[in-house]
Amino acid sequence: LKWRRVGLAAVLAGAGLGGARADELPAKPWENPGFNRPENAQKREDLEYTDMFDHAAARPPRSLRSLKTQKGAPLGYGHEDGLPPMVLLGDMLFHAPKLLGPHPALFGVSCASCHPGGGASRDIFVGAESDRPGNIDLLSNYFTPLADDGVYAPRNVPSLRGVRYTSPYERDGSKASLSDVVAGVVSHEFAQPIRGDWLNALTLYTSQIDFLPNAQLDALGRLTAKASDAARKGEAVFKAARPALDGKSCASCHVPDTFFTDRQTHALHHGKGEHMLPSEAFDTPSLINMVESPPYFFDGSAATLADAVAQIDAQQQLGLSPQDKAELTAYLEAVGATDELPRVPTTAELVSEPLAYLQLVLGGPLQDDAEIWSMCLDTVRHMLRGAVRQASGPERTKLEPLVRSYEQWTRSPEAQKPSAAGRTQLGALREQLAQASAVKTKAPKGAKAP
Ligand code: HEC
Ligand code: HEC
After folding, report:
1. Residue 135 CA: which ligand 1 atom is closest?
2. Which of 70, 287, 328, 353 could bridge across to 79 with cysteines, CB 3.0–4.6 Å?
3. How far apart are alpha carbons 426 and 421 in whole angstroms?
């Protein structure tokens, strides 16, 4: 989390919420004395303190199963039309800060903050509940006191790519089904109620998140001609049986033809285990696409794949030679590669996604559902603000006033519940936003793949 602390201080001061110095801001803004005063209600609503994203940073693209069948739209940041309504609903909910309760809403935290594009955030950092970027203890009192289990155990955020193939779930493999995990995240970790059909939609969307393509691997997890010689030698190291692993190899647990997992839990781990829970079991993670989601292991204790190999060697007492280690690293880099590295999305891409969510309320089977209406309008507001924050120059000049009109409109009587009149107004705003953002521009400077 890159707290833009100066910006936050200005926001707090501007809102009359205290003259805190940037370096002594509360980690939880709602603990600021002025924060909960009734007269600040509108200001609280107006502020979005920050976003767990650094908006100028590169982020991973998304690969959705139901988009793959559509010509020319296999991957991306923006949103292509034509998702089935329940997938689109799940997509919207995945990006909805209000779904996770009032405090996440203030931070602009949604599922997508920790799992951007369905991958894993490398830099989420949530106050005392994180011991390093990319790790967080969700069973803490940070977002809600109801989640606190009294044990400090930050865990590295896992990627959700290909998640439908990689049960069981959670780092300890304690959840058998995807809907159990999703229900647990919303109702336990964030202590929010969730409608049954929303849970289904969110689970459906999550199950659609696919691995990113990797030209170095075929469908059975074998290296292709695109892989280097070093990687090929490393494959032999990966598959060699080792006495220190009870005669097993890396491939016994990270099974190549089942996405490099055996779908089992083990008493073994390769992490440093600084914050272990008693009698912990560890789910074998997939190794596909892992180059985009360092740090590695359940505790995020290895920063690079070379570090990871050195740590496995030490932890499991394998006695690998320097050459073995270099080759094994090359193999892991090939297995974990992706053809689509993170990049900064364009403004058009950032705007097209929330505008696609408006399909939910502008027509179709869900258009008269009042709860979907208000959750959708708020999520779109949050994402349009994010797009404005990232835009610059003429593009921003064009977009910002329209986003402001949208926000103003969301406070009008017509926006409070579904109606034909509201839909007409909203449809017109959507059209203007679409036109304003269709400008083709380059990604902001400094955008480069890590
Ligand atoms: C603040 C960060 C954060 C947010 C927000 C968040 N997650 Fe997670 N997610 C995590 C972490 C950390 C884990 C690993 C927890 C563990 O295993 O102990 C995880 C695990 C998961 C898993 C299990 C993956 C696996 O392979 O084991 C799924 C599925 C998941 N999250 C989906 C969601 C959904 C859906 C939402 C929104 C409702 C969400 N997450 C919101 C951080 C987050
Ligand atoms: C007995 C099963 C088992 C064997 C054998 C095994 N692993 Fe693992 N591996 C796991 C488990 C369980 C985890 C998750 C626990 C952790 O993070 O430490 C894991 C995690 C990993 C990760 C981290 C992935 C990520 O995204 O964080 C890498 C890399 C890895 N293993 C590589 C290897 C290599 C290379 C070998 C062979 C030298 C190997 N493993 C042998 C079970 C195994």
Report:
1. 12
2. 353
3. 9
